[in-house]
Specification:
Layout lengths: L2 H6 L3 H7 L6 E7 L5 E7 H6 L3 E4 L24 E6 L5 E2 L7 E9 L10 H14 L2 E15 L27 H6 L1 H14 L3 E6 L5 E6 L4 H20 L3 E4 L15 E7 L16 H21 L21 E3 L6 E3 L9 E3 L8 H18 L11 H4 L8 H9 L2 H7 L1 H19 L4 H7 L4
Helix pairs in contact: 4-7, 4-9, 6-7, 7-9, 8-9, 8-11, 9-12, 11-13, 12-13
């Protein structure tokens, strides 16, 4: 294919970005288990000539620290090559680079052409296919919370809020304040500009309750497309922050005594034939499917938590009265419950999972949440009675409180493994346990302060 033929097939936003310019480079990327972009940068002329490229499967056996889990299987750690093929519908600008660059997300296949089962995008595609096999089309809308913080070059130092436009540190307890949003105006301007160049539609940006904490809402749509956007957005936001001498962090709990950052996931399910929301009946009432989906979240989220809250830091977010649900209750328009039914008309009736953390891989977090709902639809059980009141005060927690317990629950859930894929479950558990064991070798300041001379 000629360079011009290839460029003419790009998505509208990518073609608009390159109009009148010469494309220099293409970044061929894929998400690893933590959600880090891995891949290769190649000259545009070479990309036009190659239909695929190779990376070793070991990128999926690596922990967040760069160590390796012994997850390679029976043949041993031979780092077998995968074939990575571009999904050209994902071609998107990289507007922060010094030259004219595009990013393209790739899918991973083995030598026989089968999808690599532990590649996160493939895991999500697998779950979506299970819905489609039942005649359903899942729809999601993620909400992304994150912090803009002062540059932190020393891991021993506490993370601090960034300096705002006024010259004062970002203030806490200012949820929904437009003045607080204005403090980050230059960073937000770049976020909007980058998003426009990449063709992403932001539904809104608000100040959250933490010092320097923001939330970006995305329009609802296809789960794979929305996970791609969150994957892209994390990089986009980090790059915008670096332009203004601060860091963007998606840690679940970066600052003590401040709220954590979630990736709330809104779900609805459409009938493929009719296009109607299966959560609403002909007269607009709530259907059995609506209640089955909620029951699936209640019954299976404890096992899925190791995926939606994947790090030891994730569990520091689950603190009573700190804007993070610590329960699996469900309620209508109740933000103290882990499962919320927002106000909506019948056509857009949806269920919100408020448990997932922003530190999760967006493909895996959405896949795990949809998997729980799918199991509920298949099992046809009713949820607990709707919770009314303050669930922080009156409910009991049924979610794991540490990563080790969450991994135990994950390993003990054959139903979840069948939906996400047995091989994914095997590899994920090994890698996360390796990571957890690495953490347990670290002595924290708390231990030195309170145990050194007192025990």
């Amino acid at each position: 294919m000629s360079n011009q033929d290839w460029l003419s097939t790009l998505p509208d936003a990518a073609r608009a970005y390159l109009e009148g310019r010469r494309l220099d480079e293409v970044e061929c990327i894929i998400s690893d288990l933590p959600g880090i972009a891995r891949g290769k940068a190649v000259p545009a002329s070479k990309f036009a000539r190659q239909p695929y490229f190779h990376l070793p499967d070991s990128i999926f056996f690596q922990t967040i620290t760069g160590d390796w889990g012994e997850a390679a299987g029976e043949e041993g750690f031979i780092e077998r090559d995968m074939t990575l093929r571009p999904d050209m519908s994902t071609a998107s600008a990289a507007p922060w680079t010094g030259d004219w660059t595009l990013q393209v997300i790739h899918d991973a296949f083995d030598r026989t052409g089968e999808p690599i089962p532990y590649a996160p995008r493939n895991v999500l595609k697998r779950v979506v296919k299970l819905y489609e096999d039942q005649g359903w089309k899942p729809v999601v809308a993620p909400e992304m919370e994150f912090y803009l913080v002062a540059r932190n070059l020393d891991p021993a130092r506490d993370i601090e809020p960034m300096m705002g436009r006024s010259g004062r540190p970002a203030a806490a307890r200012q949820a929904y304040s437009m003045t607080a949003v204005d403090e980050f105006g230059p960073v937000i301007d770049d976020i909007y500009d980058f998003a426009e160049a990449q063709g992403f539609e932001i539904d809104g940006i608000t100040q959250e309750g933490g010092a320097g904490q923001l939330e970006i809402n995305l329009r609802h749509g296809n789960p794979v497309k929305l996970a791609d956007e969150v994957f892209f957005f994390k990089r986009l936001i980090r790059e915008a922050a670096l332009r203004h001498n601060c860091f963007a962090t998606f840690m679940a709990k970066p600052i003590a005594n401040e709220p954590g950052s979630a990736m709330h996931i809104h779900h609805s399910v459409l009938d493929i034939d009719t296009g109607k929301n299966i959560f609403s009946g002909p007269q607009g009432g709530e259907t059995d499917a609506f209640f089955y989906f909620i029951a699936g979240l209640q019954n299976h989220l404890p096992a899925a938590l190791a995926v939606t809250a994947p790090y030891v830091n994730s569990y520091r977010r689950y603190v009573r009265d700190h804007a993070a649900p610590i329960n699996l209750e469900w309620g209508r328009d109740n933000r103290t419950t882990g499962i919320r039914v927002p106000l909506s008309d019948p056509a857009s009736r949806r269920v919100e999972n408020r448990i997932a953390g922003m530190d999760c891989n967006p493909y895996l977090g959405i896949a795990a949440s949809l998997a729980c709902g799918y199991l509920g639809l298949m099992e046809e059980e009713r949820p607990d009675r709707q919770f009314k009141g303050d669930a922080y005060e009156d409910s009991e927690s049924d979610i794991p409180r540490v990563l080790g317990e969450a991994l135990d629950r994950f390993d003990e859930s054959p139903a979840l493994h069948r939906v996400l894929g047995e091989e994914f479950a095997r590899v994920y558990s090994i890698v996360k346990r390796t990571e957890y064991e690495e953490f347990l070798q670290v002595i924290s300041p708390w231990e030195r302060e309170h145990l050194l001379l007192n025990v």
